[in-house]
Amino acid sequence: MSLRNPYGHKSVFEDKNRTQNPTKKKKRARDTKGTLLNIWKLIDEKRIQLIVVILMIICSSILSLVGPFLIGHIIDTKIIPKELNGLPQYIILLAIVYIMLSVTSYIGSFMMVSIAQRTVYLLRNQLFKHFQTLPVAYYDQKQHGELMSRMQNDIENVSQVLNSSFIQFTSSVVTLIGTLSIMLYLSPLLTLLTVIIIPIMFISLRWITARTSVLYALRQKQFGIMNGYIEEIVNGQTVVKAFSQEKYVIDTFNEKAKDVREYSFWSITFGGLIPKVMNYLNNLSFAIVAGIGGILALNQTAGVTVGVIVIFAEYARQFTRPLSDLANQFNTVLSAIAGAERVFDIMDEPSEKDDKEAQDYQNINGEIEFEHVEFKYDPNQKVPTIKDLSFKINNGESVALVGATGAGKTTIVQLILHYYEVNKGRILIDGIPINKITRESLRSSIGVVLQDSYLFDGTIKDNIMYGTPNATYEEVVEAAKKANAHDFIEALENGYDTVLKGESGSLSQGEKQLISIARCLLQDPKILLLDEATSSIDTVTEIKIQEALDTLMQGRTSVIIAHRLNTVKKADLVFVLSHGELIESGSQDALIEQQGIYYHMLNTNDDEQIKELN
Length: 614
Known about the structure:
By secondary structure, this protein is an alpha/beta fold. Helices cover 63% and strands 10% of the residues. The chain is built from 21 helices and 12 strands. A 6-stranded mixed beta sheet has the order 6-9-10-3-11-12, sandwiched between helices. The model is unreliable at 1-29 and 606-614 (pLDDT under 50). May be involved in multidrug export. Transmembrane domains (TMD) form a pore in the cell membrane and the ATP-binding domain (NBD) is responsible for energy generation.
């Protein structure tokens, strides 16, 4: 395997700038100090519990230092002189020390796990909550699988560090200070020989981590890309099979998996050097202490005895072991920091916020007006998606939007929902600029029925109540009856308590749309936005859907992306769109009389032509 960047011919280390491009990433996402500070803010509420954990760690670390000192003392005062008087008491004391060591270690670990899990719980909840506040435009630019990776994998890496690395770090610091103090007390000369290896350790560690930090960041990014692709293919599996693209998606996945393998291999390989180097230096230190200490003990110089050598060798091991432990944890910490940065990168994204002057309007009547609206999804777009669009829909009127794919029909619906801000012009609801109405009050007055009706995992009753959680069972049934959904729901084994799983289980597209219409009826909105289903629906179900839509549209301002001529005929107005412009508008009779574009659409191939243009 070559140390190559899968995006080109540079070394993976040279690819560092690609992940730190200031046009792609915020500065804070590369700020390790800022990331750790954000995590600390989540922990801070458990400050007292954390202090107890630190005290337990300090106690266990001190107790771990007492044991070797007692053993050395026993060797010099009891074993070598063959003085057995008082030996049992020393052994009992040593046993008590190690029992207390185990108890304090367990208490510290138990409480730290509690703190860690609460912190991760808060982090995951904050991230999910922030997901709900992000604008639709953000999701347009992201793969869902990548966002799932940040919610799951990246946060789990943080959890792993909090569960183990914090205790390891604190314990190592206390142990280092304690062992160094005792070693200096026992033999300054041997201590000097032991600490000589520290600069070598840090130089080695810095060289290795300079490479692993880049590799771990790239690995996390590639995991997100791979997970995004998996989620996309799982959701589109029927399309993959319909077009016999199994081999293509497998090959594409293999390429993405190779990228993950490449970065994982090199990050783990370089990270694995750390414990190997540390173990070698530890053994070297032990050999120096044993060799020099043995010579000093034989010559009875510098106050070194056999007991001192035994104690010092153990403390030398305890001195270098924390350095090894910290080095071994370093890979986990790097991975967690990379994951936490990706999480906080999302949380730094601006939320969808209402205008400061926006107010709640609970009694919206349903009048919609566009005044010279221009809109681009991307500011760099040369040609706007919507161009100088003006129209007015009176309260209670129904409008059918027709036009070819890309004409701007769906965009109009999304702008009415205030998913995006317009670039020019303005949109008014009941004469009020849309940005002066809070999104919550606006959207609570709008009912949406999409052609691909999305139903959540749960019962049919729960799905109908989705927008109206306080509705009674009787109101749910009444809404279903009006939507012509009651009969087929009752025919199911568990009726309204039937649990829907995995893209709504065995329900047909038509049945799903009837449930969606029932959900909208229960909400009782003032404005209805409808995207007719284009999929094949049997004649009986289609008649039921049309009857349900007629009921739904009564007395409501309705904007329909029309795919069927029958729907267009029933609309009060028809808007003919082309490339974001309104090229014809009026009643169907008026447009036919004009003998313009709409007239030629009808005469070309009636219903099939409208489907083709949409």
